[in-house]
TrEMBL record:
Pathway the protein takes part in: Metabolic intermediate biosynthesis; chorismate biosynthesis; chorismate from D-erythrose 4-phosphate and phosphoenolpyruvate: step 4/7
PANTHER family linked to this entry: BIFUNCTIONAL 3-DEHYDROQUINATE DEHYDRATASE_SHIKIMATE DEHYDROGENASE, CHLOROPLASTIC (PTHR21089:SF1), SHIKIMATE DEHYDROGENASE (PTHR21089)
Gene: aroE
Originating species: Hydrogenimonas thermophila
EC class of the enzyme, as a word: oxidoreductase
Annotated ranges, domain Shikimate dehydrogenase substrate binding N-terminal: 6-86
Entry-linked InterPro entries: Aminoacid_DH-like_N_sf, NAD(P)-bd_dom_sf, Shikimate_DH, Shikimate_DH-bd_N, Shikimate_DH_fam
Family membership: Belongs to the shikimate dehydrogenase family.
Protein name as annotated: Shikimate dehydrogenase (NADP(+))
Length: 263
């Protein structure tokens, strides 16, 4: 039996074991997936080896440490310096980032996307901006403060603070902030958000497990949308593909894994 796990702190809330074990059972793959609370990220590699794992996923706050722990890192993960999937092959740890590719796979299901407005300027926003631009999607970033926009400006992205932002037509508006996770706040002033959503075709919130105020505004406008649950599923499908060494098509994995959303 091959062993897999998710590392994080906290990690007790993670739905990854349910998602992967369901797919293992459905597809008849001899694997088992657990969770491990890893407090000290510098011990990630030693813990992986000690547990005898064949692969693992990594969630906050250890994605940067996972990047350091990998022997070989795929190009996109190297660019963002964050790894969320490790696979042991030939006694080497291979590092991948499936978050942004998973997001893009989910986004394609909404329809054609040529432009995107990203709200927020944290790690998730960075990864999505870089990956979506690599798919020839025009990116614009808006954030409350100027300071966190410096990286985006240095990377050549069009950026605005709330004060300088004038909403224009975009195919999709993506909220990468935590606004609405534990309260009823919006990710930016309501007037600016409403103008942005009215000029968009789709809306996405990376938060999962809650009908956020952002998504409520999108629903009022009857915009097609998805939330972090779909992103979680799609990144899991790609990670599962690495775990099982491409034995199944992505569509086969999705058919086996998607029912977890209703469990």
């Amino acid at each position: 039996m091959k062993l897999f796990a998710i590392f994080g702190d906290p990690v007790s809330h993670s739905k990854s074991p349910l998602m992967h074990n369901l797919a293992f059972k459905t597809l008849g793959f001899n694997g088992c997936y657990g969770r491990w609370q890893l407090i000290d990220g510098t011990k990630l590699r030693d813990t992986f080896i000690h547990l005898g794992l064949n692969g693992c996923n990594i969630t906050v706050p250890h994605k940067e440490e996972a990047f350091k722990a990998a022997d070989i890192v795929e190009p996109f993960a190297a660019e963002v310096q964050a790894v969320n999937t490790l696979v042991l092959k030939n006694n080497k740890l291979y590092g991948y980032n499936t978050d942004a590719p998973g997001f893009y796979r989910a986004l394609q299901k909404l329809g054609t996307t040529k432009s995107a407005l990203i709200i927020g300027a944290g790690g998730t926003a960075r990864a999505l901006a870089l990956f979506l631009r690599s798919k020839d999607i025009n990116i614009e970033v808006v954030n409350r403060s100027e300071r966190r926009l410096k990286w985006f400006k240095d990377e050549g992205f069009v950026c605005h603070t709330w004060d300088s932002f004038n909403p224009s037509s975009k195919d999709v508006v993506i909220n990468t902030t935590s606004a609405g996770l534990s309260d009823e706040s919006l990710p930016m002033p309501k007037e600016l958000l409403d103008q942005s959503l009215k000029k968009a075709k789709y809306a996405v919130d990376v938060i999962y497990g809650k009908d956020t105020p952002f998504l409520k505004e999108a629903k009022k406008l009857t915009l097609p949308f998805f939330d972090g649950s779909e992103m979680l599923l799609q990144q899991g499908i790609i990670a599962f593909d690495y775990f099982t060494d491409h034995q199944y098509t992505l569509d086969e994995i999705e058919t086996a894994m998607r029912p977890f959303l209703s469990l």
